[in-house]
């Protein structure tokens, strides 16, 4: 266990540069005193590691030193091959690089680990887009990715769902997120400004600016977690009481959000197999569109949604009269 921690400590310093004992303790989930002992052990083993006191101090490796130690175990090698998303890499223009990297990694592994990694690649495949939805065309993705990587400002024309529908902005790209087969650009109007999410598929144009910017200390993963939580809080603004037929309940699995599925699963079923559930809704208009996809359902409340379902049904019936 300690040997694995020493390797992790060494690789942390190699990849991140100077780190304090407190930072290392948080990363490795140990006490600061344990870090002190581990650093002494590495120094005693001949690792060119030194520490500096003071507010801006910390531990770091001698400049130019890099270990060849990877410390890969069999399960770790399997996990590396499982993380590959070939389609996403291809969209970013990195398909050939990903293939070359996997070949090099495979060649560097011991025979036993290489066989396990090959089995993992042959038996598991990751497909990000959900059912009933093809991959979204993103012709501007490579331009956006270049702006993110090179820290260059980006001039965009963007189509959104609220008025005004079409907007033009100059943004500082901070990161890219792939969510359920959809790419999102995370960017701010200024380096330290408030970040916003832009769906890359909704970009009408994207032009690299000649102006660069200093990237702030921005945690992309933390931002996205917060964004998703806020999105869910804004999304569910109402409720509806709905009777679902057995056929509608069966179709829910493929079409409904997990919160709707949970509400229906918790509701009681009558003798005829119908389920009456109180479900969260975004808006009457959105709820009507989603419910009409399910087949036989009856909205009991609110009256606005019930009236909207009736009018939609009458329109459909008139077309088929």
Question: Would you kindly provide a written description of the structure presented here, covering whatever features stand out?
Answer:
This protein has four domains: about 1-60, Winged helix-like DNA-binding domain superfamily/Winged helix DNA-binding domain (Arc Repressor Mutant, subunit A); about 75-125, no CATH class; about 140-230, SH3 type barrels, CATH 2.30.30; about 240-320, no CATH class. It is elongated and about 85 Å long. With about 325 residues, it is of the alpha+beta class. It has helices spanning about 1-15, 20-30, 30-45, 75-80, 85-90, 95-110, 110-125, 140-150, 220-235, 245-255, 260-265, 285-290, 305-320, and strands spanning about 50, 60, 150-160, 165-180, 180-190, 195-200, 205-210, 240-245, 275-280, 295-300. Strand 4 and strand 5 form a beta hairpin. The chain contains 13 helices and ten strands. Helix content is about 45%, strand content about 20%. Strands 6-5-4-3-7 form a five-stranded antiparallel β-sheet. Strands 9-8-10 form a three-stranded antiparallel β-sheet. It has a two-stranded antiparallel sheet with strand order 1-2.
């Amino acid at each position: 266990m300690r040997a694995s921690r020493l390797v992790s400590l060494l690789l942390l310093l190699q990849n991140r540069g100077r780190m304090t004992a407190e930072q290392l303790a948080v990363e490795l989930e140990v006490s600061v005193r344990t870090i002190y002992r581990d650093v002494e052990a590495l120094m005693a083993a001949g690792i060119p590691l030194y520490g500096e006191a003071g507010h801006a101090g910390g531990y770091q490796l001698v400049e130019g030193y890099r270990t060849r130690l990877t410390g890969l175990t069999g399960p770790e090698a399997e996990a590396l091959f499982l993380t590959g998303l070939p389609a996403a890499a291809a969209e970013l223009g990195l398909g050939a690089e990903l293939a070359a990297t996997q070949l090099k990694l495979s060649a560097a592994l011991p025979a036993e680990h290489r066989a396990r990694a090959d089995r993992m690649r042959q038996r598991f495949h990751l497909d990000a887009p959900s059912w009933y939805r093809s991959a979204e065309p993103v012709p501007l993705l490579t331009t956006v990715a270049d702006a993110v990587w090179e820290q260059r400002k980006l001039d965009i024309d963007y189509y959104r769902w609220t008025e005004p529908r079409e907007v033009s902005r100059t943004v500082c790209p901070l990161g890219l997120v792939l969510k359920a087969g959809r790419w999102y650009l995370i960017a701010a109007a200024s380096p330290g400004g408030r970040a916003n999410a832009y769906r890359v598929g909704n970009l009408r144009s994207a032009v690299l600016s000649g102006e660069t910017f200093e990237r702030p200390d921005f945690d992309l993963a933390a931002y996205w977690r917060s964004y998703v939580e806020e999105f869910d809080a804004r999304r569910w603004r109402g409720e509806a009481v709905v009777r679902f037929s057995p056929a509608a309940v069966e179709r829910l699995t493929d079409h409904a959000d997990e919160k709707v599925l949970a509400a229906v699963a918790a509701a009681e079923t009558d003798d005829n197999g119908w389920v009456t559930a109180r479900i969260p809704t975004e808006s009457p208009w959105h709820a009507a569109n989603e419910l009409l996809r399910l087949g036989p359902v009856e909205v009991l409340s609110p009256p606005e949604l019930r009236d909207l379902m009736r009018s939609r049904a009458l329109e459909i019936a008139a077309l088929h009269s």
